[in-house]
SIMPL domain-containing protein (Paenibacillus sabuli), 248 residues
Amino acid sequence: MQMKKWVQTGLIAGALMLVYTAGGLVQQHAPQQAAAQEETQVNSTITVQGTGMLSASPDWSELRVGAETEGETVAAAQSATAESIAAIKEALLKNGVQAEDIKTAEFNVRPNYQYDEKGSRSLNGFVVTHILHVGYGELGSVGKVLDAAAKAGANRIDNVQFTIEDRGDLEIKALEKAGKHARAKAEALAAAAGKTIVDIQQVTEQSGGGGLMGFERAAADDSDGGSTSIEIGQVDVSKSISVTYIVK
């Protein structure tokens, strides 16, 4: 009987110890949970996008000129195209283009098919296309260079575009403008929510939006046999960033 009382007493004591221990654990974790909640509240964030753009005069042009020739065989078409390209290169060099600024941008050989009234096709020789990428810094003479290429046999003048060869400083200034733009947007959003910016959590430059070049279309007017006239505009340098601000 006495042994039974001891067992009961021991069980009661053990239960009390478990209660006290559990209570201590609850008290121990309560401040940690409160701190975590407080930290979560402090680290509320706002993420915004900022964009900065500058315009400047270009100092470099990029031209795509070349020749496209038909022939009964691939060899015949390729030989005729090669002859035209050699003459075009010579004309470019004579008009101030540097040899290192002339590169092949495209070379293509394709069959030339003819279709009859019934829709049946037959091979009618081959077409060889050779396009050159040409870099040129004398912007005032771009029209003259195009005329020289055309007279030498260029029957493909695909594109004329203008850019800035060294855009490093402009890109930095565009990023600075993007940062100010992002900050202004974040401050407006924070104020609307009754919060204040306290720090920056993350800044990321947006891929695909950095240093975008603005291209101006070339305007050619040779209806009276005169020289090609090229209208040069401004080049846009744009940068975009994403900024996450910590607010409280």
Observations:
- Residues 117 and 123 are 15 Å apart (CA to CA).
- The two ends are 67 Å apart (CA to CA).
- Strands lie at 44-56, 60-71, 102-115, 121-136, 156-163, 197-205, 235-247.
- Confidence is low (pLDDT under 50) at residues 1-27, 209-224.
